[in-house]
Specification:
The protein contains four helices and four strands, in the order ααβββααβ. The protein has about 120 residues and is an alpha+beta fold. It has one domain. The model has no long low-confidence stretch (mean pLDDT about 80).
Length: about 120
């Protein structure tokens, strides 16, 4: 992940120093800014689903897959009453997700993905 995009996502999620999309519209009018907004929305959505899954009594799980070129992909699995959500994240995205309130405590790492 581009360091600038990562920093923007961190600032979007930081409640003590929020980054206003309206005030900084020039920043978000660039490809990097649009990418940061997209990642931010995706991570917030995952956070909501993870916390909802935990409240329903299920444990969201994640699996680490190492690709052929050594890159790591995270598969996030949430089984809920309404169905199942599987998301694939890069390491940097997963680190940002884990920094969101309540997420790290709710996740459980498993060694093998469920069939």
């Amino acid at each position: 992940m581009d360091p600038f995009v990562r920093r923007l996502v961190e600032r979007l999620h930081d409640p003590t120093r929020p980054l206003s999309r309206n005030r900084h519209f020039h920043t978000f009018d660039t490809p990097e800014g649009r990418s940061a907004l997209k990642v931010s929305r995706r991570l917030k959505s995952l956070q909501r689903d993870i916390l909802s899954c935990s409240r329903e009594g299920h444990r969201p799980r994640f699996f680490r897959h190492v690709g052929p070129e050594g890159e790591t992909r995270i598969e996030l699995l949430m089984e809920r009453i309404q169905g199942r959500r599987v998301s694939h994240l890069q390491d940097a995205e997963f680190e940002l997700l884990a920094q969101l309130p309540g997420v790290r405590e709710a996740l459980e790492e498993t060694l093998e993905p469920a069939a």
